[in-house]
Amino acid sequence: MRMKAALCLCLVLLLAACSGGGFLPSPTPRESPTPRPSPIRAPAGTDTPGAPAMPSPEPGATAPAGAVAAPEIAAGLIPAAQLARYQAALNAVRVRDELAGDWLVQSGTLLRDGVLDDQELQALDVVVNHADDDPLWYLSHARVLDGVSEQDVAYLQDNDAVPETDWYFSDDISGLEDNGLLSQDGRRSLLRIFEHAHSDAEVRRGLYLVNTLGMPSGRAFQYPVPAYNVQLYLLARLLERGVPGEYEKAAVAAALAYGSLLTIADQAAREDIVDHASERLRLLIDTDVMLSAAGAHWRAVEYPLEALIVLLWGGQAGGYPQPGTLLAQVQGLAAAAAGRPLSRDDLGRILVQMPAVRQMQDEMLSAVVEQTGDETTATELLEQWWSERRRDEPDDAGPDLNRQWTRYRDGRGFVGGAGSAYVLSGLAASINLPLPWAELWLGNQGRLQVVPFGVRLDPAARALRLDNSAQRAIADLPGEAKAALVWWHAPWGNWHLPGQARSALTVPLPLSVWHGGIPSGYLLRGAVADEAAILAALGVAPQAAPF
After folding, report:
1. Which residues have C-beta within 8 Å of that of residue 514, sequence separation ≥ 6?
2. Sequence-ordered list of residues with C-beta below 8 angstroms from that of 6, at least 6 positions apart, any chain
3. 545 and 447 in contact (C-beta within 8 Å)?
4. pLDDT per residue as tens digits for the range 281-313
5. Which member of 123, 411, 415, 476 has the greatest number of CB atoms within 10 A?
6. DSSP bridge pairs for 333
7. What is the DSSP letter of 351?
8. 365 secondary structure, DSSP code
């Protein structure tokens, strides 16, 4: 513990140096309303003289040329004629902006249903033919992320996107200032990260997602939601507390993850969410310092944006935990918050409590990091460590991570399938091993097999790979067997994108695809089908579902 205290002292000194000598004060929000800015708006100024040129990302900021292909393409689901047109558009986009082409491949945008329809191909044509505009703005827009209709194509055709220095945030900043939610320090912090985005491709992509998804979608809620960009607001609050420059990408990731929770929380709970997001970010930085001191060969700061969103998320997005009910059977979070905003008590049930995570970190640093500095080996040790303590008993208190951790310390082991998953996720995040909880649904001879496992990120290839338990489960299956990856995700879409208690990252695919890995951008993909449709595609009767 003395060693850790010394390391934490080093961290404080490091943060003070990186944040200009100290932490900046936070603004005091006011309740005064402001007219709601349009949640989907055209960028201003299509022919402004002297507009800045398209930014050139730093070398190495985008994916390598040999990045893992989209599973739908690798599996041969896209017809040849459509695929040729898609690849031609992809090549044209890459010539103009490598980051936009990388996003198209990494996120699987337009491919999530295994079909490229006319509207999706027309949207790609718009991106290619608007030669003076920013292709990433189009591809990261909510109208594209949520599927493409004829109206969406018309919108994209009618709206230009010439790059601006503030990444189209002028209306959002005005909205925050009108609400009294942006201090001068916060404004200066935003201007600094806007400038940073011109040289950091990951930050630029994150800011575009904040731009298009930060304005809450209140369609599903029976009460007023914030009339300002909650993700931009949270980003400003995080930055003004002091964030080293190399961790600004992580701050954007935290704003994307927790901004959506701000939308459905009351005022008191919103302050708790800001504090929780800030603590999660601090823990990530703290852990990086300790991992480096311990000789580990990986740091969270090096992970791509989508992995950081999942890594920093410390709650359950798929369901609202209730005592005596497994997570797979509980009401969805959006449905639970439909009638009233979340309170502080609700947050205590949804979010991983930081004291428990810090206790886990002490244990995991001792049990894993001190034994190896190799990420793959450490992940395998973590899987083994978790498996030895799992108990397939009914979970009578829901996925309560604090309670689960108390059981471990008492030598009683973890309980409940979904509750154990929650523990695994918390343990992984505590030492920067990004293992979001997931299930592999296998359809074999009309029967469903469900394999719980962790998804391992290969930072070098920016690919998601199945852990050892999943690899063992599929090793002896016949080649014609099908599989779907199902998982619970962070609510990063701010309720614009459809979500379900279980979200499939891809449509069912031949098992050979899983051996090759999945682009890490698929962590941010929305649901592609409901559970009944997935079971039907796997060739399994609906009554065989594991819930």
Report:
1. 440, 466, 470, 474, 483, 485
2. none
3. no
4. 999 999 999 888 888 878 888 888 988 988 888
5. 123
6. none
7. B
8. I
